[in-house]
Structure to design on (1330 residues):
């Protein structure tokens, strides 16, 4: 059951698609007060209560013990002290003495203090807001109920579940072909190669540099013939350059965000001075989406949307101010305060609140200063593309995901969790985010495997992939400053081949479970305690997940580890996949604690009692996967039926084609 | 056995005090080649070899799988991607197919690639260097042998083993008294309060701001009467201000580092423009040490030396260059490269190689550009103070520790591990560094408990203290920007009281073991595998330590954890300390894996078979600790003797006073 309480007049977010009657008064079990013009919702946590949710956010699966400031932020130095990331997913699920969900639907800043200031107090601080209290008999039911009102989740084409190689730094056709060859020549599977900002002409969206990519249509076709899709990046900001058709056209139509006086607001991002499409204006949104046509027409079927928090490197006025300030300090003996003030002028140029308070949107519900609706930007930029795809070819599923997002976005596209780093802690963070994202509808999600910033290691890359095979978005991506981290760039290519192949072996399971969950509102990745709510030990499990109906995973996430401890909450069958999924061993394990060894080229997971899981032979890409001759992992005593998705892989209408397969013990 | 090989003419470091004959030729088992003017030492690691050592460095106890760039660096954002910290401790111990130690004695940059570029290769890259190959029958013996040639470790006064509260932000006498009261009124033990840079006049070393600290002598005496010592900070750089006696005197004597033309080299640090005492010149070093007299005369008996990498905020010329460059960009449309170039001018001002290559030392072995001897600076600044203390009162032990260090430093003082952050990962890093530091002679060491930068949480603070009670330096320290993290600033003060009291309960053990290890060259904190070298599982234990002769610790280091897994490598007695050490329970555990629950106010550790451990009643400070009526934790079947240190707590000469106590089963 959902009860909606409205406080003030929150800007429209369209996060919720099943209209709810709105109440005023106390959103039980929270109490409310006003403080410094903000609303503060409070709830006293039980001693052992857990708090789940918040999607893309810091810390563990259980969010208790930290403060979270949901304000979409482009800052790649994601240390433990951070409180904001690239997405704002304002849903929490309190699990304990009382179990309930709460969605704070406000596109401005929302701060969740979950036992940070006071270990026993949960407070949520925000401006005008719709609060949805979600009740149900179990955590799973609460999530289903929440997912019901926010609408069902985006499903990409099936090839998007293959393995993807990406890097900021593939500068031309030869670089792209070298990656393709690198995978194929080493017998490594591959379904996608991503193109980062270098394919564009001067970082202008919807252009292609003709010198470095003389014939994108031909290149896309050449790769697609081998089952490899090219996936270009699209940035939020549009270069402010006369003669650039997107700029000229948008300017004429009045589709860019404006300053207080109604003139286009200039920010600087990759291409230098730029303007921001006003994607909160439905006409401008669709207009921006329609720009994707130029790439669709060249055979492109997938896109990733970036810099759409929106990220701002600097604005013209504030840069001028900083330079003028610096000039005034020339020749002075600066003490630490004066020096801090000077460098601070430059350090704080990016993503400043001053800028976010200086431009405006013409939204459906009126003119809003950006800061009031900040967290909706990436969502609506991405929605624009999705809305246009529905026009371009209505029944076709395109690959589309974004860096920034808000709840609602999950209906149109997926997300990646932004610019992480090659740190073991970010592998753990990747795992910890998955169930929170799932609760908020983001099923097609994943992190940059191996880590985006900094240098990875062979071991980290392998362990990260071994977790990543269970995440819908399975992409290796890094910056141009990082060491090469394509799987063939390492020494033990055999281990990489084994792990990548396993992804394809489990793909029939992962894909079928994904499609079922997208339709039903069930969770694909769940905290272990959701399946074993009465198990006290399961409450504290932070490094294992339930994936789909049948299995529990327990990846190795420590450097130099030969294995790891696993808590098995009920009798299960331990499966050890070997040799790319071509071989496996199994062993029944009783409820309890285990130390398991996991070599770098193997994967261990656990099959629930009564469950089965299909396993395919590995393939070089999704297109060549043989799903007729499936093997079955099973822990059953009676025959069971397993529903496997038999869609065509790319149309929406075929998504309901399921085959029920009877599996004998 | 130690064999020394000399390559080129490395600057004198005085790291090794037992002279060794010098050989030329291949430092077996390494091979050597020259590459780009550097020497590259290589060793192929066995598949399961572990590599220990490197003291204050990143990653785990086992250093394999990363690259380490030993170059003392002031940068408090200590992410997993970092390769340099505040200290350079160039000793490694390879443990496996061959077990041996190697010390690369060079005060310039030394890079250890330990299976990063190639998982199986260890390479060490540096300039001129003395390489010491250390052999022995076991890891422990190799460490003893290395510690023998580098000389025995510093022992502080006994009160320095008490609990210390520190914060950058105690601005005046009232702030200091409020901390003292906060601890005493809440029944929390305390032995020290630290004074950060705010006690000085305009950040000038050896001055006291008379407005905020009108009578330091009286304040120090008032606190000392309650067993609380005031410990001021000393910075490396001296404000360049005429009329400031330290500056005037040093200038006259020619004791500051100079530029290429022999003029004092100006850098900016806290006080603005400053000069660097040339602590590599023995006369200048002792002169700088003699400056501490002004504080010793006011009753101060302990100091911490900071900013001695040496940290440089900016140099005059490069700041001017940055400002002029910025002015040239005024009004331009900067694309991402141009913008990066502009902000880069400011981002790279601090600690630049250009500056480190621009000033010189008059060392005993001649004039050196700073970059050639960089890693010796903190060591020699600190040595100067120690050398002066020997003159001021020869038999007295003073508390002295430093941020930056090099091997050799351990004979004169301790270290703290620099400006960490309030991250769970830094609690783990704290544990991981301890055995590496120990191998290099740094027994008096510890991290800023609770974390220095950023905001801690009550749970992190408690768990960190619960580990910290086993580290010799036991100090809570934070920046002025952090939330209050004094133990009385949290909700569950009872839990803090319990944990702090436990430190005092185990202090007779920790102190006795410390003094024994400082004299014998035994390790106080050891990897578990050092005690159980034949145990394959013990090789991968990264979150437990052996502490002293009798115990193994296994602290909880995960947020929201109720307990943790422990690998018990042999039959042991599990001890659960409760109620501040006033109570405990015990249970014999066989070799194997355990999940143990550990509430926030308890500590669990493991007593080895055949071992005993004294336990005192908690006390409000070290001075009031009753060490005559000891209780004993014991896991023995026969009587054993335990040697307990019975020194007076502050003289060097009394350090050999041990009492042998016979403990009955």
């Amino acid at each position: 059951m959902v009860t909606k309480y409205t406080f003030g007049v929150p800007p429209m977010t369209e996060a919720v698609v099943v209209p709810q009657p709105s109440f005023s008064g106390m959103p039980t079990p929270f109490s409310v007060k006003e403080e410094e013009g903000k609303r503060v919702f409070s709830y006293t946590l039980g001693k052992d209560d857990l708090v789940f949710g918040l999607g893309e956010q810091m810390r563990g699966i259980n969010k208790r013990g930290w403060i979270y400031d949901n304000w979409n932020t482009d800052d790649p130095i994601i240390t433990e002290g951070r409180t904001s990331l690239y997405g704002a997913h304002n849903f929490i699920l309190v699990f304990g003495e009382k179990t309930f969900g709460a969605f704070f639907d406000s596109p401005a800043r929302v701060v969740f203090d979950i036992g940070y200031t006071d270990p026993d107090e949960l407070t949520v601080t925000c401006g005008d807001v719709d609060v949805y209290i979600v009740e149900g008999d179990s955590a799973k039911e609460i999530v289903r109920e929440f997912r019901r009102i926010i609408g069902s989740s985006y499903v990409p084409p099936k090839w998007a579940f293959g393995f993807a190689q990406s890097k900021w730094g593939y500068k031309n056709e030869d670089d792209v072909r070298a990656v393709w060859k690198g995978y194929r020549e080493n017998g490594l599977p591959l379904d996608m190669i991503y193109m980062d900002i270098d394919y564009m002409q001067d970082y202008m969206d919807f252009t292609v540099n003709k010198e470095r990519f003389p014939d994108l249509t031909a290149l896309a076709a050449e790769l697609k013939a081998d089952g490899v899709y090219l996936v270009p990046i699209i940035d939020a900001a549009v270069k402010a350059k006369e003669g650039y058709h997107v700029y000229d056209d948008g300017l004429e139509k009045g589709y860019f965000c404006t300053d207080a006086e109604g003139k286009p607001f200039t920010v600087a991002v990759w291409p230098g001075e730029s303007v921001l499409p006003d994607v909160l204006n439905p006409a401008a949104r669709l207009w921006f989406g329609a720009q994707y046509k130029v790439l669709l027409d060249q055979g492109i079927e997938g896109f990733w949307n970036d810099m759409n928090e929106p990220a701002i490197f600097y604005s013209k006025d504030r840069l001028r101010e900083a330079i003028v300030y610096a000039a005034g300090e020339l020749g002075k003996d600066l003490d630490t305060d004066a020096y801090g003030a000077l460098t601070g002028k430059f350090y704080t140029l990016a993503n400043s609140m001053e800028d976010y308070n200086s431009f405006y949107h013409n939204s459906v519900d009126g003119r809003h200063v950006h800061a009031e609706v900040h967290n909706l930007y990436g969502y609506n930029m991405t929605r624009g593309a999705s809305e246009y795809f529905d026009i371009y070819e209505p029944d076709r599923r395109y690959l589309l995901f974004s860096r920034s997002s808000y709840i609602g976005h999950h209906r149109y596209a997926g997300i990646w969790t932004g610019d992480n780093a090659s740190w073991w802690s970010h592998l753990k963070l990747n795992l910890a985010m998955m169930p929170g994202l799932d609760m908020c509808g983001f099923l097609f999600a994943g992190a940059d495997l191996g880590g985006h910033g900094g240098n990875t290691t062979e071991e980290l890359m392998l362990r990260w992939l071994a977790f990543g095979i269970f995440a819908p978005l399975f992409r290796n991506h890094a910056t141009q400053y990082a060491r090469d981290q394509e799987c063939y760039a390492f020494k033990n290519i055999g281990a990489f081949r084994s792990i990548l192949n396993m992804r394809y072996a489990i793909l029939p399971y992962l894909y079928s479970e994904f499609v079922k969950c997208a339709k039903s509102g069930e969770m694909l990745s769940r905290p272990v305690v959701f399946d074993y709510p009465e198990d006290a030990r399961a409450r504290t499990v932070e490094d294992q997940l339930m994936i789909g109906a049948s299995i529990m995973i327990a990846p190795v996430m420590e450097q130099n580890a030969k294995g790891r401890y696993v808590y098995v909450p009920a009798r299960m069958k331990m499966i050890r996949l070997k040799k790319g999924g071509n071989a496996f061993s199994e062993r029944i394990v009783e409820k309890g604690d285990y130390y398991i060894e996991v070599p770098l080229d193997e994967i261990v997971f656990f099959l629930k009692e009564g469950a089965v899981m299909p396993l395919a032979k590995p393939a070089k890409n999704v297109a060549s996967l043989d799903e007729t001759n499936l093997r079955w992992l099973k822990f059953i005593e009676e025959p069971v039926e397993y529903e496997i998705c038999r869609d065509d892989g790319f149309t929406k209408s075929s998504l309901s084609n399921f085959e029920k397969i009877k599996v004998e013990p």
In short: Chain B touches chain A through 74 residues (CB under 8 Å). Chain B has a mean pLDDT of 97. The radius of gyration of chain B is 25 Å.
